[in-house]
Write a structure and sequence with these properties.
Layout (H helix, E strand, L loop, with lengths): L1 H13 L13 E6 L7 E4 H5 L3 H6 L3 E4 L7 E4 L4 E4 L5 H5 L6 E8 L4 E10 L6 E2 L4 E7 L7 E3 L4 E2 L7 E6 L5 E7 L5 E7 L10 E10 L6 E11 L7 E2 L3 E7 L7 E4 L2 E2 L9 E7 L2 H4 L2 E3 L5 E4 L10 E10 L4 E11 L7 E7 L2 E3 L7 E8 L9 E5 L5 E5 L4 E6 L10 E10 L6 E11 L7 E2 L3 E7 L7 E4 L2 E2 L9 E5 L3 E2 L2 E2 L4 E3 L5 E4 L10 E10 L6 E11 L7 E4 L9 E4 L8 E4 L1 E3 L10 E7 L5 E3 L5 E4 L10 E9 L7 E10 L7 H42 L22 H4 L12 H6 L16 H5 L8 H22 L1
Parallel strand pairs: 1-7, 9-16, 18-25, 27-33, 35-44, 46-53
Antiparallel strand pairs: 2-5, 3-6, 4-5, 6-7, 8-11, 10-14, 12-15, 13-14, 15-16, 17-20, 19-23, 21-24, 22-23, 24-25, 26-28, 28-31, 29-32, 30-31, 32-33, 34-37, 36-42, 38-43, 39-40, 41-42, 43-44, 45-48, 47-51, 49-52, 50-51, 52-53
This protein binds 2-acetamido-2-deoxy-beta-D-glucopyranose (3 copies).
Protein name: Cadherin domain-containing protein
GO molecular function, one term: calcium ion binding
GO cellular component, one term: plasma membrane
């Protein structure tokens, strides 16, 4: 290349230096890049000043700084070159000043010559941008709007000009973009611009890298970490874990039982995320039952939970954060039934009475059972546990009809206490019971029953009329009038006479009375049917036979049949003279109408002409010779014989027996005459008696006619007809009206039958009937006349009977 080549390369190396070379007033100006190595020749001063190199050293050329500061350059006195002696750092010397010049004075002596040398330090890109801190911390509220700007720390580059910071770049991210601005001093700074809203709950922190780049060659850059903390805003509602909490809770749960714990979370933080719970909407009822722990959200029981009161509680719970944002959830508390209610039995309809003999299945009442519990706990079974003839028939739903299971008999059981037990199917089961009282009402299903199969009555004859003969009793277990017994006699005849003239019966008491005196000799017994009838409708009756036996009384004296007392009373027995001792001579024959002892006769010789000649058989009445008849014995022998019965007291009759000891009747003429005389006198006396009788009869007849006329109405007729006790219920209406009392009380029965014969029959038994009857005898016509008449009659009657006795 030679010189030309070397020259060109010199130009290339240093040519640009001369661009800045100023030759002003002989002053020198050079440029040198900073940080050149020591010895680097900046320029040739000698040449540029056109000085002789040789003169440099003898003229004591030197380079002075203006203020004796550090010198970075020096001059080579041999060559006149200006070279670098120390490291030149533009940034140290001039900082951020764009132009950086070092000023020197070149001093030459002999002659003193002063030249200004200016050394321009050129910048090289030897500094990277520097951020003030190696981390930028930003706190941005999540609520920041899009477009919000956040200035970032400016990076600094010690270099100037192009070597200074030219741009910033931001790491790619979702939220921010970068805007770069220039300062008034030419620096550049950047701002973060929010491009998309932040969500703390999504991303709480962000780390971005910001790069600052200068414009040097080669380019230098540096980065800084932007640490973005997203600040919370109360932008989140508390959120329940469930929209609806559905829980089951047993009724009667003890206080304090936990029902459910609701939980809500709030994505916010701090107070914004602190959740408290409360009831939002709650019924008054539920408010008394549940409470919620505001901190934990636990719902507990504070009152008596009753399924029967309410089966489901719906509660709205609210969760609220510290800043007042709230959300709600629903809590459904389903109360689970517990068997805590016993069934209740209601009597829907009930008859207090059921008719006996009602057909089985007759409905007595209707019951209804209710249980407030649910499902199995309200399934109720109803039963009757006693042994009673009733059963329950299930009807619709919880209705049961109480019906009879068998025929009832009031006479056996007249009332029932029916206990109905209702049991539910809970576990354990609960039960309750109800007792209902039922009475069986009567129907007339029992006839009166006599206490005995038959009755016998013994009455001694000549009884007092009105005396009681016997008493019958019949029982009827029915109720009240259905069991009230009336007695009556069944009409019949005894020996052709109506029974009523012999007996009457007290319809109430069943006492049978004799109406008249009986005569054993007339009849000894008879039967009578007594009917007992109750007062039911229709009435029931039964009958019994009463046998009346009349007992004998010694009311008949012995009657001599032979020898006949009248007519041939003087009839004589012939006794043969040769009759031997013990031979049967005659016989007294006597009878007694009575019977038994009363008719047991004994014979006795009371008086005899020759005592010791004859004997009589005490029982046979045979008269026998006690010894042989002798000639000396009187021919006529009279015996008086007494015949005596064995009654108490005994009655006796006497008769005379004439015995003639003779073999020939002709031997006794006196006797014949005597008998004729007797006959004649008898005839005349008969005639006299007849005459007297006829006239007496006539007279009596006339007197009677007059008497009858006079006291026709006063004299009673003796009537015993209609002497039947007729129960008042069966009297025809006109009978009932007899006394105009409307109803005929049984005490009037006797009255009634006493007056049935005719209106004129006023005869009353004053003494014969029981005092009750008579005491009530308001209708008896008790005139003294009548009474005396009656008594007269009885007196007469007794006279008659005494006559008979005699
Ligand atoms: C029924 O109960 C009543 C009262 O409790 C009692 O007086 C009566 O004797 C009872 N009857 C029966 C038949 O048990
Ligand atoms: C008597 O029985 C009849 C039915 O035979 C009945 O109608 C009546 O009520 C009963 N009387 C009484 C008092 O029970
Ligand atoms: C008396 O009772 C019997 C059976 O007890 C009956 O056959 C008869 O008819 C009854 N007589 C009267 C008159 O009631």
């Amino acid at each position: 290349m030679g010189f030309k080549g070397a020259f060109l390369s010199w130009i290339a190396l240093y040519g640009w230096i001369f661009v800045f070379l100023h030759v002003c007033h002989g002053d020198l100006s050079y440029s040198v890049p900073e940080e050149t190595k020591k010895g680097f020749v900046v320029g040739n001063v000698a040449k540029d000043l056109a000085l002789d190199v040789k003169g440099l050293s003898y003229r004591e050329s030197r380079l002075d700084t203006e203020d004796n500061d550090k010198r970075f350059c020096d001059i080579n006195l041999q060559t006149g070159e200006l070279f670098v002696v120390d490291r030149i750092d533009r940034e140290e010397l001039c900082g951020s000043k764009i132009s950086c010049n070092l000023r020197y004075e070149l001093v030459l002596e002999n002659p003193l010559e002063l030249h200004q040398v200016s050394l321009h330090i050129e910048d090289i890109n030897d500094n990277s941008p520097v951020f003030p801190k190696n981390e930028i911390k930003l706190e941005i509220a999540e609520s920041a709007d899009k477009g919000a700007r956040f200035p970032l720390d400016e990076a600094h580059d010690a270099d100037v000009g192009r070597n200074g910071i030219q741009s910033y770049t931001l790491e790619k991210n979702n939220h921010f973009t970068l805007a770069v601005h220039s300062n008034s001093d030419g620096g550049k700074y950047s701002e973060l611009i929010l491009d998309k809203e932040l969500d703390r709950e999504q991303q709480q922190e962000m780390v971005l890298t910001l790069t600052a780049t200068d414009g040097g060659t080669p380019q230098r850059s540096s980065t800084v970490t932007i640490h973005v903390t997203v600040l919370d805003a109360n932008d989140n509602l508390p959120v329940f874990t469930q929209q609806t909490y559905e829980v089951r809770l047993f009724e009667n749960s003890p206080l304090g039982t936990a029902v459910v714990t609701v939980s809500a979370s709030d994505a916010d933080e701090g107070a914004n995320g602190e959740v408290t719970y409360d009831f939002n909407r709650i019924s008054d009822k539920a408010a008394k039952l549940f409470s919620i722990d505001s901190a934990s959200g636990e719902i507990t029981v504070i009152g008596p939970v009753d399924f029967e009161d309410k089966r489901e509680h719906e509660i709205r719970v609210q969760a609220k954060d510290g800043a007042g944002l709230a959300s709600t959830a629903k809590v459904l508390v389903n109360i689970v039934d517990v068997n805590d209610n016993a069934p209740v039995i209601f009597l829907k309809s009930f008859k207090n009475h059921v008719l006996e003999h009602a057909l089985p299945g007759t409905e007595v009442g209707m019951i209804n059972v209710q249980d407030k519990d649910s499902e199995g706990n309200r399934q109720v079974r109803c039963s009757i546990q006693q042994n009673v003839p009733f059963k329950l028939n299930p009807s619709i739903k919880n209705y049961y009809s109480l019906v009879t299971a068998a025929e009832l008999d009031r006479e056996l059981v007249s009332e029932y206490n029916i206990t109905i037990v209702a049991t539910d199917e809970g576990n354990p089961p609960l039960s309750s019971s109800k007792t209902i009282h039922l009475s069986v009402s009567d129907i007339n299903d029992n006839p009166p029953v006599f206490e005995e199969q038959s009755y016998s009555a013994y009455v001694s004859e000549n009884n007092k009329p009105g005396s009681s003969v016997c008493s019958v009793t019949a029982r009827d277990p029915d109720w009240r009038q259905n069991g009230t017994v009336f007695y009556s006699l069944l009409p019949s005849e005894v020996n052709g006479v109506p029974l009523s003239s012999y007996l009457s019966i007290n319809g109430d008491t069943g006492v049978i009375h004799a109406v008249r005196a009986f005569d054993y000799e007339q009849f000894r017994s008879f039967k009578v049917q007594v009917v007992a009838r109750d007062n039911g409708s229709p009435p029931l009756s039964s009958n019994v036979t009463v046998s009346v036996f009349i007992t004998d009384e010694n009311d008949n004296s012995p009657q001599i049949l032979y020898p006949t007392p009248e007519g041939n009373s003087f009839m004589t027995e012939m006794v043969p003279k040769a009759a031997l001792s013990g031979s049967l001579l005659s016989k007294v024959i006597a009878v007694d109408a009575d019977s038994g002892q009363n008719a047991w006769l004994s014979y006795q010789i009371v008086k005899s002409t020759d005592p010791g000649l004859f004997t009589i058989g005490v029982h046979s009445g045979e008269i026998r010779a006690q010894r042989d008849i002798s000639e000396s014995d009187s021919m006529k022998q009279n015996l008086v014989i007494s015949v005596k019965d064995n009654g108490q007291p005994s009655l006796s009759t006497t008769c005379a027996v004439y015995l003639l000891i003779s073999d020939n009747l002709a031997e006794v003429p006196e006797l014949k005459d005597m008998s004729y005389e007797e006959n004649n006198s008898k005839l005349t006396s008969y005639l006299i008696i007849a005459l007297v009788s006829v006239s007496t009869f006539f007279l009596t007849f006339i007197i009677l006619i007059i008497a009858v006329r006079l006291c026709h109405r006063r004299k009673p007729r003796l009537l015993f007809d209609g002497a039947v006790a007729i129960p008042s219920a069966y009297l025809p209406p006109n009978y009932a009206d007899v006394d105009r009392t409307g109803t005929l009380r049984s005490t009037y029965n006797y009255d009634a039958y006493m007056t049935t014969g005719s209106r004129t029959s006023d005869f009353k038994f004053v003494t014969s009937y029981n005092d009750n009857t008579l005491a009530a005898g308001s209708t008896l016509k008790k005139s003294p006349n009548d009474n005396s008449n009656c008594l007269d009659f009885f007196e007469d009657a007794s006279k008659c009977s005494t006559l008979v006795n005699n």
